[in-house]
Specification:
This protein is mainly alpha-helical and about 300 residues long. The chain is built from 9 helices and 3 strands, in the order H-H-E-E-H-H-E-H-H-H-H-H. Strands 1-2-3 form a 3-stranded antiparallel β-sheet. The longest helix is centred in the middle third of the chain and has 23 residues. It is elongated. The two termini are about 35 Å apart.
Length: about 300
């Protein structure tokens, strides 16, 4: 669905009762005052000990959105009653993309996670975390959500775009850091020099050279704003060039396959989806306990 109009930076004003998280107050009969019930959160910490989750990623690795700086939600003022009901998830089907007056949304089934929803809808799960952490404080990639929790699916305002781009850069740096720690990274760290390597036919085979050092520089310079698949395309180009020039089973081809396997693993750990829907998902190293579960 489309993003609709943008609200500009005026969205950084103080938060009021008008944002989309607030329910509409209906008149009630006056009752005797009693203890206020504790509101049930959309998710709760099951274990905040810092243990790794099922993907082996610790809290500080898969959650950049704790610094989410928005101070105003999506404004429900002026919505007609029926439109407001849809925004609040009343009477809408769960587990599907829903178009509302305030943007595309998703209302969860019990125990669904941003990671699962992202893979299902082919939206980066980490985008869902960044975009919705202001509404759901502490939201993480594998937080288990209670039924009916609303997640916004796309940025609608400038401040939302801003935080998505900031978080994206941080996550891409995490991917590059993982590759740079790999023992075979060094052969892909710089552009191929056919003279130094005595391979004069290299550019006859490889028409669009690329190296991971160039990719890392583009990440540092913020070149991948907007479409994260541009980053994946550049990284994949390094590995496909390696396969194109080096025969299967050669040392170089084997090392390229190993580094690409590490890329796939970190890509999924951090909540991205593959551009190629047919690419096989890497298997997680084991189940863990950093999830936040509905009680």
């Amino acid at each position: 669905g489309g993003r609709g109009g943008r609200g500009g930076r005026s969205g950084r004003g103080g938060r009021g009762r008008s944002d989309a998280d607030d329910a509409v107050d209906a008149p009630r009969e006056r009752k005797k005052p009693g203890p206020k019930p504790k509101p049930r959160p959309a998710h709760e910490d099951e274990d905040d000990s810092g243990r790794s989750g099922e993907d082996g990623v610790s809290d500080d690795e898969d959650d950049y959105a704790n610094g989410f700086s928005r101070t105003h939600g999506r404004d429900t003022r002026g919505l007609e009653r029926q439109a407001l009901q849809v925004v609040m998830g009343r009477g809408v089907k769960r587990g599907l993309r829903v178009e509302t007056e305030l943007g595309s949304a998703y209302f969860t089934h019990e125990d669904e996670t941003p990671f699962d929803i992202g893979q299902k809808l082919r939206i980066h799960g980490n985008t869902l975390v960044s975009l919705n952490s202001w509404y759901l404080p502490g939201l993480k990639l594998r937080s288990k959500l209670k039924a009916g929790t609303r997640l916004w699916l796309e940025a609608r305002f400038d401040d939302e775009e801003e935080i998505l781009n900031d978080d994206l850069k941080g996550r891409l740096e995490k991917v590059m850091n993982a590759l740079q720690r790999h023992r075979f990274y060094f052969i892909f760290a710089q552009p191929v020099d056919p003279v130094a390597l005595n391979i004069p036919d290299y550019f006859d085979v490889v028409k669009t050279p690329m190296d991971l050092g160039t990719v890392a520089n583009k990440v540092r310079n913020g070149a991948y704003k907007g479409d994260v698949f541009d980053f994946e395309d550049d990284a994949r180009l390094v590995f496909s060039n390696c396969r194109a020039y080096n025969p299967p089973g050669s040392d170089a081809a084997t090392m390229g396959d190993a580094v690409e396997k590490e890329f796939d693993k970190k890509w999924i750990e951090l909540g991205f989806v593959f551009k190629d829907e047919t690419r096989e998902m890497p298997k997680p190293p084991g189940a863990g306990g950093d999830e936040m579960r509905t009680k």
